[in-house]
């Protein structure tokens, strides 16, 4: 009988950062359902046993997984791991208790995971044309609410979603990832300039027969030039990342337009998409400290090296 609690609330920023990894999320999903050895986890995910061992041990180290059973097989002691609860959640107070840099880094990694999973699914849909308006959706809206109204709305959303958060099977039932994100609208931001207009859902097609999002993205990718804000903010925005972060031309142009610059501190993979120019990086990045793999054009790498990034050996 499974006597684990229904939910475990993360207690430290270290725990939050530990689970902000696509592979560890998949491991958590597996061992949340049943106890497994690291060998079984590796086989289920198609990764080497030593890699599975490392990530499972990291989850155990931060306290979100534990050994629940040991068995001896052919003279070898097998250890079975399982999550400490059926589900994990992040309490609203967690980020407020950490330092600003820790909070930004943790939020960055979690959002990168959300974006990575969404874009992976979206890329698959674009390539296969298996459009499903109910499954692929991106909707950005401005709301005008009081704090009490917002708490009431969020409570109703949790109540509606509750019955669907239990694993089940059946005709037509499939797993959908649902990310809920709210934040105050910052004056002067791109979201604020939308003047309350909702973005179109990602999935769908118009009279022309092609997906709206694909054509919209194509138009954006063909833009050239950007209206630069002046003067640039003298205090760069610190971004601390342990893991993977990628920057697109559109994202950097938006920052430059708003007069923002970045002070990057990255441990892991740092990527600038191929259409990002050296001039744009020079305008958007104030300083960079990077240890890991850098993926960028030679021109962009030269700019980053001048701003503090060491060439990857």
Describe, in plain words, how this protein is organized in 3D:
- The chain has 313 residues and is of the alpha/beta class.
- Among the domains are: 7-89, Orthogonal Bundle (Arc Repressor Mutant, subunit A), CATH 1.10.10.10; 139-164 and 176-200, no CATH class; 237-306, no CATH class.
- It contains twelve helices and seven strands.
- It has helices at 13-19, 22-33, 38-45, 49-61, 93-97, 100-128, 147-161, 190-193, 212-221, 249-257, 278-284, 298-306, and strands spanning 7-9, 65-73, 76-83, 87-89, 237-247, 262-272, 285-295.
- The strands form three sheets. A three-stranded parallel β-sheet has the order 5-6-7. A two-stranded parallel sheet has the order 1-4.
- It is globular.
Number of helices: 12
> Overall pLDDT, averaged?
76
Using only CA atoms, what is the Rg? Answer: 22 Å
Overall body shape: globular
Query: What proportion of the residues form beta strands (DSSP E)?
Result: 15-25%
Classify the helix fraction into a percent range: 40-55%
Main-sheet strand order equals 5-6-7
**CATH first level of the domain at 7-89:** Mainly Alpha
Q: CATH superfamily name of the domain at 7-89?
A: Winged helix-like DNA-binding domain superfamily/Winged helix DNA-binding domain
What summary fits the major beta sheet?
3 strands, parallel
The poorly predicted ranges are: 189-233
- Enter the CATH topology name of the domain at 7-89: Arc Repressor Mutant, subunit A
